[in-house]
Amino acid sequence: MCGIAGFFGFEDKELIKKMLDSMYHRGPDDYGSYSDREASIGNRRLSIIDISGGHQPMHNEDETVFVVFNGAIYNFLELKEGLEKKGHRFYSNCDTEVLVHLYEEYGDDFPKKLLGMFSIAIWDSVKKKGILSIDPAGKKPLHYFFDNGILLFASEIKSLLNYEKIKAELDGISLNYLLNLQFIPYERTLFKNIKKLLPGHTMIYENGKITTKRNWKLEVTEDEKPIEYYVKEIQNLFTDAVRRRLTLSDVPVGIFLSGGIDSSSVVGVASQFQKVKTYTVGFGEPTDELDSARFVSDYFETDHHEIIVENDLLKVMPEAVYHSEQPSIGMLQSYLVSNAARKHVKVILSGMGGDELFAGYDRDLYMEKNLKYGKYVPKFVSSKSLFNLINGLPFSLGLNYHEFFRRVNAVSQLKDVTRYYLLLRGALNITSETKEYFYNEKMSGNIQDIEKIFLPYFSNNLDIINQKLYAEFETKLPYHLLHIEDRMGMANSLESRAPLLDKRLVELAFSMPREYKLQNGITKYVFRLAMKDTLPKEVFSKPKWGFAVNPYYQFRKDLKDYAEGMLDDKIIQEIGINKKIIDKILNSKPNPKLRWYYNYLWNIVMLVLWYKIFIEKENPKNLT
How confident is the model at residue 363, as a pLDDT? Predict the structure, then answer.
């Protein structure tokens, strides 16, 4: 809905204006700020609810508490009614105003009352107290810089970089995480000294100090209720979640449609309330899902739009990197489809989250099926030393052996759940023993064992599938998938809403036994049951491709030429990358089995662009 920014601990009216101007794309409809001697908070607004009366910052009755807000509060009408009964008076019909009165009524715990996606900043001018908070899933980001008693915050890092004491520097540990995982987990960002506020957390600023508290924590249980209970609950909660996200808008709403179960379910339920607009994208590749999406569109009689992208991916890469600030391959198609959808609507619904809640990936099946053989694997075979040895063999024998040895490594690690999961995820898993193949000496001190991040999720008594879903909900989902969805949508002034990530649905999904999610080799079993009377049967038999481009096709088409033309040896050295592996990939004959390496090359290309844009201050428009 917007971009928010501000700071606590000093006054600078010119700075708050620059911070907001840097995020014009997040809210081109309106902007506003409040400043006093000890704080400034501001907002760039994408007007969706109460278009004429929703100007921010908003305040309480005596104008002592001020709020700026990014997102949507889907239960704000119920909250408003309850607050009015307690004596609070409102001057708008906007969900933002509810927040300031909730804070007055419930203090720092007010986010617990919210159903929605949000990043919030509140300044209490009487108590000289600042509050920052984001939603449980981390759909709406908030970054911050804290130093010597002052706190700056913003929806995007580029806004923070307007503060003269923040120098844009690459964080090597974060780079290692990004190349290994395609995302940066937890507080770190690709920029030194700039951090993320974690999902479901609230930060409190008082007397030049900050404290952080968790206002929501995912509880994973395995309640033995009958499957019929969960089917009915999913139907009721999902219908309500779609309805709220569809109708809480004074502007048109569209839906991203791939033709898979999740997005088709959103379309099917939404069509019960109104005629909907749907959008899908094709890349001129065998895995395109245009036919499947068209079938679903015809079935529900939607106003359907197809976006065909064959030669634009690399053209938009610099602009996408600029908006992402944490580059990854999946952002490019998201940028393009968001750009096309914004020509018709301001709000889009997606099927994001269904796979992470109900076990929708093939690797869910592989984990459950294959790990039972781990007990037959000798302990020495699953050792870390053998793992590192096998990981390094492709480099000494040639890149074409990589896929073979990854498969060998997967079999050898069946006894170690965490390593096996990372291998299935396609994680790079660079270790101290293999770092020389990927990095030069500049990165020598930045190698972190990524297994340590995931070990806690696989060290409990939960079923292996619930362990895996727990790990992905708390890592890949907020720091990769939702990061892309927010940044690429807002780059095009488009708000994205995810009904499947409704807090109530999340809590329900993580309360059910594994066998309701995977049964007889069928993924998302309980969700399929819940949707069987809504969707045509053809949707359930559709193979899962995913909303992504194929790096092998792109390498063969234009990625190789693009990389050879723009990769700068000096920058690659500065980043800390071993140029030899880049040369090996570029000089190799195109081969579908080298898909993993093409992904790596693509990541390096985007990192070089990132360096040029944020470190060398080049205009992304000059890099196309």
Answer: 87
Mean pLDDT value across residues 78-102: 95
Count of residues in the chain: 624
Give CA–CA dist 240/116, Å, rounded: 13
What sign results for the dihedral spanned by CA atoms 395, 401, 407, 411?
negative
What confidence tens digit (pLDDT) does each residue in 58-67 have?
A: 999 999 999 9
Cα separation of 256 and 262, whole Å? 10
Q: Please give the Cα distance from 265 to 270 (Å, whole number).
A: 8
Are 98 and 113 in contact by the 8 Å Cβ rule? The answer is: no
> In angstroms, what CA-CA distances link 48 with 59, 71, 204, 343?
19, 10, 29, 15
- Given a contact cutoff of 8 angstroms between Cβ atoms, the answer to whether 542 and 259 are in contact is yes
> Distance between CA atoms of 442 and 420, rounded to whole angstroms?
29
d(CA 528, CA 521) in angstroms, rounded, equals: 13
Specify the long-range contacts of residues 208-217, CB closer than 8 Å, at least 24 apart.
Answer: 208/9, 208/149, 208/150, 209/149, 210/146, 210/151, 213/108, 215/109, 215/111, 215/112, 215/133, 216/111, 216/112, 216/136, 216/503
What is the C-alpha radius of gyration for the chain, rounded to an integer number of angstroms?
A: 24
Per-position b or e across 561-585, b if 16+ CB within 10 A of its CB: ebbeebbeeebbebbbbbeebbebb
Residue 587: CA atoms inside 13 Å, Cβ hemisphere, count?
8
Q: Over the stretch 35-70, which tens digit does the pLDDT of each residue have?
A: 999 999 999 988 887 677 789 999 999 999 999 999
- Let me know if domain 2-214 sits in CATH 3.30.300.20: no
Output the pLDDT for position 399.
87
Rounded distance between C-alpha atoms, residue 235 and residue 401, angstroms: 47
- pLDDT tens-digit series, residues 406-452: 889 888 999 899 999 999 888 877 888 888 889 999 998 898 889 99
Q: Give the domain ranges of the chain.
A: 2-214, 227-359+474-540, 551-622
Separation of alpha carbons 271 and 587, rounded Å:
51
Task: Tell me the backbone φ, ψ of residue 115, rounded to 5 degrees.
Answer: -120, 105
Q: Is the distance from CB of 520 to CB of 369 less than 8 angstroms?
A: no
- Residue 95 labeled ligand binder: yes
Q: Per DSSP, what are the bridge partners of residue 203? A: 132, 212
Quote the pLDDT of residue 315. Answer: 87
- Paired with 211 in beta bridges are 204
Q: Residue 456: CB partners within 8 Å, gap ≥ 6?
A: none
H helix or E strand, kind and range, residue 376:
none
Burial class of 587 by CB neighbour count within 10 A (0 to 12, 13 to 18, 19+)? exposed
Task: List, in sequence order, every residue forming a beta bridge with 152; answer none if it has no partner.
Answer: 7, 145
Please give the CATH number for the structural domain made up of 227-359+474-540: 3.40.50.620
Q: What is the rounded distance in angstroms from the CA atom of residue 546 to the CA atom of residue 173?
A: 29
Q: How far apart are alpha carbons 128 and 207 in whole angstroms?
A: 8
Per the listing, tokens 């479901």 go with: 200
pLDDT at residue 547 in the model? 55
Q: Which pair of structure tokens corresponds to residue 241?
A: 């979640």
Q: How far is CA 567 from the centre of its chain?
A: 27
Active-site residues, by number, are 2
Q: Which amino acid is present at 190?
A: L
CA distance 48 to 62: 26
Report whether 303 belongs to an annotated binding site. Answer: no
Q: Give every CB contact of residue 583 below 8 A, 6+ residues apart in sequence.
A: none
Contact (CB, 8 A) for 510 and 218: yes
